Amino acid sequence: MADAPGERSDPRDRAARLRDRIERWNHEYYVLDSPSVPDAEYDRAFRELQDLERDHPELATDDSPTQRVGAAPQAGFGSVRHAIPMLSLNNAFDDDEVLAFDRRASELLGDLLPPDAQIDYCGELKYDGLALSLRYEGGRLVSAATRGDGSTGEDVTANVRTIRAVPLRLRGAAPALIEVRGEALMYKADFERMNARQRASGEREFVNPRNAAAGSLRQLDPAMTAARPLRFFAYGVGELDGAAEPETHAGLLDWLVALGLPVGAERRVLRGPQALLGFYREMQSGRARLPYDIDGVVYKVDRLAWHERLGFVARAPRFAIAHKFPAEEAVTELLDIEIQVGRTGVLTPVARLRPVFVGGTTVSNATLHNEDEIRRKDLLIGDTVVVRRAGDVIPEVVRALPELRPPAGSPEFAARLRPFEMPASCPVCGSAAVRDDGAAAWRCVGGLYCSAQRKQALLHYAQRRAMDIEGLGERLVEQLVDAGMVKTPADLYRLDAATLAGLDRMGEKSAANLVAAIERSKDSSLARFLFALGIRLVGEEVARQLAAEYGDLDVLLAEDWPARQAEKAALQKENARRRSRGEAPAIVPLEGIGPEITDSLQRFFAEPHNREVIDGLRAAGVRWASARAEQGGALGGASFVITGTLPGMSREQAAELIRAHGGTVASAVSRKTGYLLAGEAAGSKLERARELGIPVIDEPALIRMIGQENA
Assuming Cys at both sites, which of 217, 228, 521, 527 could form a disulfide with 544, CB separation 3.0 to 4.6 Å? Predict the structure, then answer.
């Protein structure tokens, strides 16, 4: 968070400002469960205050945040004084600080270490949850408390007893008294499910699993805590009576497991500083696969007897340190919002950020998903924003920090901030950009022309169910587009074998075969051609229906879609009146094709770029028989339903054969069905056809009907 000019000039004033800021953040984070800044910003301010107090000892005060661990207990809970203070750990943020930690420990242990020996440490995960103290007497859980300020915590016994991971009675030979210390947390999947329930009920969502765990433990009604999926991992012991403490920390953790307490499995004894760094990198690379959040690892000198020799400094022990991962959230400036066009034409807003180091890398771009997300997060270009990056996840802008904006209406506000507006045209090709009713995304309608959609458009055009250009696969399309040889489907018909043979993995024979396949694709059907254009919402069935309805592409291109949809709606109302009078209904055009599809057709054909490509395809020789002429073929418009396994062809091939000879294919048997084409293992459709008296034919009978017995 940027400081005002001159704010750093007076160390005393700066320290006072930092204390106030950190105390406010502590209150928000630990008491209100509503953090306003990322951990990285908190850590930066805390370390700056530590440095100030080190360089100016007269500034250190007893009530400084550096002299205690967290926030005071929340009113409404009883207080619990810890018999042994629950201290926090110092943090290391780079390799050098870890090496310095090991060097100091080696120097302090001095004569206890054999010559040239390296210290054994126990490596554990640093869970992103809420620290707890569990007190067991005679093996029974008698109390539970939060860390609080390190000396006094909140009594959350009733709430902790609802956590199923916490045993109410220890197993085996439990000591007379043991105070177990660990972390309450929430698994990521449980957190997502809980937030989904919060959204469904219209309640406030939690910021992150740590925030959710803290809020759950601080419910005054234990039943509310019980309804929330909390977990617990033990990582140490405070007070102990009636049992001998194990010699090592690793042995202590194994003992806690034997007592029936949950302990994280990702723990290891590590010899020397290089082993510490190796453990850190291993855990960092695998953190995204863990079911819970961690923000680093913890190293503890393994031999417990050496802890007393090493002692404590200020607020933390010298025998342990937390090695934190790079921040997954950071604060930066939203410089601009640009539009990225995806391969299917979706327009996605992308944040251009002042570069910031977050999650182990420098981030300058982040996804904003869609226009609604920008409005929901109240983002303005020029805002100070929080950016999050977790593992390999694409960085995202989490929220703005509106409290850092200049006053609304001020000259500074107008000069620095401006709202974002989605463009009316595609930034790549200039075609119209549209947003369908009820949809979140905007789309470019120039599917045949837009370079951002070029590869996807070509692959769709060439697929078997469209123009069926065998041999035009993904790798070849990549080469053709990247080399600038093909920009639209019409360019395919200008390719020659010699040019293709020069491409990677394309010999003369393969090139000749592809040219032949492209040439064969010129003879198609109107239905295939319409499907090949890749019009949004126009699949194979809709394309066949349009071809049957219009019969000719020029008629289809000249259609007044709003007028046709209005005519259809009027006829549907008229048919409702006719049915009420017992009259025969009128024929409704485009039955089953609703306004979303007709809107998509209107937008696609109204785009001049798409019309140019269609004209180019026709000029290249792409042709088809009139769909109405096809209907007058050997099958004369008869309706077929196909069921079972045919001996000589697939059901899809049979459907293509029927349509090619003027028939239609439906999915369900009805009184309008002309024939049922049945193969082996025909089921309920065969029974239904017999009930209705519909003729049942086999594959040879179909061949005879279309006159291809000797084909």
Answer: 527
**CB neighbourhood size of 606 (10 A):** 12
For 149, the token pair is 């300020």
Per-residue pLDDT reduced to its tens digit, 224-271: 777 788 999 999 999 999 999 999 999 999 999 999 999 999 999 999
CA 378 to CA 283: how far, in whole Å? Answer: 36
Q: Dump the DSSP string for 251-266.
A: HHHHHHHHTT----S-
Secondary structure (3-state) at 268: strand
- If you search the block for the tokens 């008629």, which residue do you land on? 555
Determine if residue 94 is labeled as part of a ligand binding site.
no
Q: Confirm whether residue 88 is marked as ligand binding.
A: yes
Q: Which amino acid is residue 627, in one-letter code? A: A
Mean pLDDT of 360-388: 90
Q: Is the dihedral of CA 622, 626, 631, 632 positive or negative?
A: negative
Report the sign of the C-alpha dihedral through residues 30, 32, 38, 42, in that order. negative
> What span, in angstroms and rounded, lies between the C-alpha atoms of 123 and 250?
9
Domains of the chain in start order, with CATH, are 11-67 (1.10.287.610), 91-324 (3.30.470.30), 329-416 (2.40.50.140), 451-624 (1.10.150.20), 632-705 (3.40.50.10190)
**Structure tokens given for 415:** 């000069």
8-state DSSP, 10: -
DSSP secondary-structure letter at 176?
S
* Residue 147 is labelled as binding a ligand: yes
Alpha-carbon gap, residue 383 to 402, rounded angstroms: 8
DSSP tally for the chain: helices H, then strands E = 26, 26
Q: How far apart are CA 446 and CA 449, in angstroms?
A: 5
**In contact, 207 and 29? CB cutoff 8 Å:** no
154 marked as part of a ligand binding site? no
The helix (H) or strand (E) run that includes residue 691 is helix 684-692
CA atoms within 13 A on the CB side of 661: 17
Q: Residue 568 catalytic?
A: no
Q: Closest Cα to residue 300, out of 164, 102, 20?
A: 102
How far apart CA 605 and CA 70 sit, in angstroms, is 64
Catalytic hit among 126, 455, 568, 573: 126
Give 267-297 pLDDT, tens digit per residue.
999 999 999 999 999 999 898 889 998 989 9
Bridge-based pairing of strands 696-697 and 79-81 is unpaired
Q: Kindly tell me the sign of the dihedral angle through the C-alpha atoms of 335, 336, 340, 345.
A: positive
Looking only at the bridges linking them, the beta strands covering 396-400 and 384-388 are antiparallel
Locate 529 and state its tokens: 């051609």
Strands 329-341 and 384-388: antiparallel
Tell me if 287 sits within 8 A of 316, measured CB to CB. no
Phi, psi (degrees; rounded to nearest 5) at 488: -135, 165
**89 annotated to bind ligand:** yes
